[in-house]
Design brief:
The protein is of the alpha/beta class. Helices cover 39% and strands 23% of the residues. It folds into two domains: 7-146 and 318-353, ATPase, nucleotide binding domain (Nucleotidyltransferase, domain 5, 2-Layer Sandwich); 151-312, 2-Layer Sandwich (Nucleotidyltransferase, domain 5). The protein has helices spanning 49-56, 63-87, 120-127, 137-141, 151-157, 190-197, 209-212, 218-225, 240-252, 258-274, 292-301, 311-330, 338-341; strands at residues 7-14, 22-31, 35-45, 97-100, 103-108, 113-117, 131-133, 163-167, 170-177, 180-188, 281-285, 305-307, 351-353. One of its GO terms (molecular function) is kinase activity.
Length: 354
């Protein structure tokens, strides 16, 4: 019997709720006693204003309109990968697969569905490279949240840290408890900050400077912390629906100046993060790791050492881990943990287009 190959070159694609752009990372994985990795090349291809608008309005489309967007985005992803390969003088036949998260449009696990667009069939057709996508649906079908998916990568690639937190549009945490990997979405991060700062004509709050200069409001702080989600036990996950229908409503109906809302929101986020940190070390990644105000607030509220790695890990850890989920799919190994999603069992998620 031929042993499965233990070295892979995979392109990971990640497009998050903040719509900052498409993260592309060419990653190499090798397994001896345990998995090791390297990020060979990585970049973020920003979305045009037209693409941002189309994706922001995707949940309002007709069925036919959404299917058209799914196909168009798959082609766009494929063209982005081709440009990436050309830029770095890489040959498609030297890449084992593309592993694509897609763009989440609907996430309603309680209704037994989740939707990530960016057609894997079109992506594969445009690039000529085997493509793995739709990592969440199998878990949802098994009664899980379909999220978070990153914890298996935290376990096998970043297990030297007691906690891993990613500050993307949504902040999520992963850790071991009683020899079991646990993980869940803590709360909104860049999605809320960007929503607020856009009213000031800026795309984001660089380094958390605007929030730092604001004033704290106890009433808003208590309103945010009182929201139902923060009192639910894991497994639990967040989506754009909850932000649009609940969280943003709380901000929109508050009369405070935007800067004070940003400051108070940052205190809220730090409070929600710190209450889950007990001791040891915590790896911080995602765009929010550059928000010095958030990190200072978390450090002042917890004794856990917050470790911010090199920029390539901050920016591309999720693309790296989706590439790794693709490796596990090719190896037919578990890549989704029921201990974090609440599904009836572990599973192997991902559809393959060759």
């Amino acid at each position: 019997m031929t042993l499965p190959r233990k070295r892979y070159r995979i392109i990971g694609l990640m497009s998050g709720t903040s719509l900052d752009g498409l993260d592309i990372a060419l990653c190499e994985f090798e397994k001896d006693d345990k998995w090791s990795f390297g990020i060979l090349f990585a970049e973020t291809q920003k979305y045009s204003d037209q693409w941002v608008s189309r994706l922001q309005l995707a949940d309002q489309l007709s069925g036919q309109g959404l299917m058209q967007l799914d196909a168009d985005l798959g082609k766009h992803f494929g063209e982005a990968v081709n440009n990436f390969l050309k830029k770095h003088d890489l040959k498609p036949n030297r890449i084992d697969a593309i592993a694509s998260h897609g763009q989440t449009i609907f996430h309603q696990p309680t209704n037994s569905f989740t939707t990530q667009i960016g057609s894997g069939a079109h992506l594969s057709a445009v690039t000529g490279i085997k493509t793995i996508c739709d990592f969440r649906s199998k878990d949802v079908a098994l009664g899980g949240q379909g999220a978070p998916l990153v914890p298996i990568g935290d376990e096998l690639l970043f297990g030297m840290y007691d906690y891993c937190i990613n500050f993307g549009g949504i902040a999520n945490i992963s850790f071991r408890e009683n020899d079991t990997r646990k993980s869940f979405d803590i709360g909104f991060a860049n999605m809320a900050s960007n929503y607020l700062v856009e009213t000031l004509g800026k795309p984001y709050d660089e380094n958390g400077t605007i929030a730092q200069g604001g004033s704290f409001d106890q009433s808003l702080f208590e309103q945010l912390n009182a929201l139902e989600y923060f009192h639910k036990d894991p497994p639990k996950s967040l989506g754009k629906e909850y932000f649009d229908q609940v969280f943003s409503f709380t901000l929109k109906n508050n009369p405070l100046p935007t800067q004070d809302q940003l400051h108070t929101f940052g205190k809220h986020l730090a409070f929600q993060v710190a209450k889950h940190l007990k001791s040891g070390s915590c790896l911080s990644t995602g765009g929010g790791s550059y928000n010095q105000f958030w990190l200072d607030e978390i450090r002042s509220s917890s004794s856990v050492e917050i470790i911010v790695p090199e920029p390539i890990i901050i920016d591309f850890k999720e693309a790296l881990i989706f590439a790794f989920l693709g490796v596990l799919r090719l190896e037919e190994c578990t890549n989704t943990l029921h201990s974090v999603t609440g599904a009836i069992k572990d599973s192997i998620g991902g559809c393959i287009y060759t």
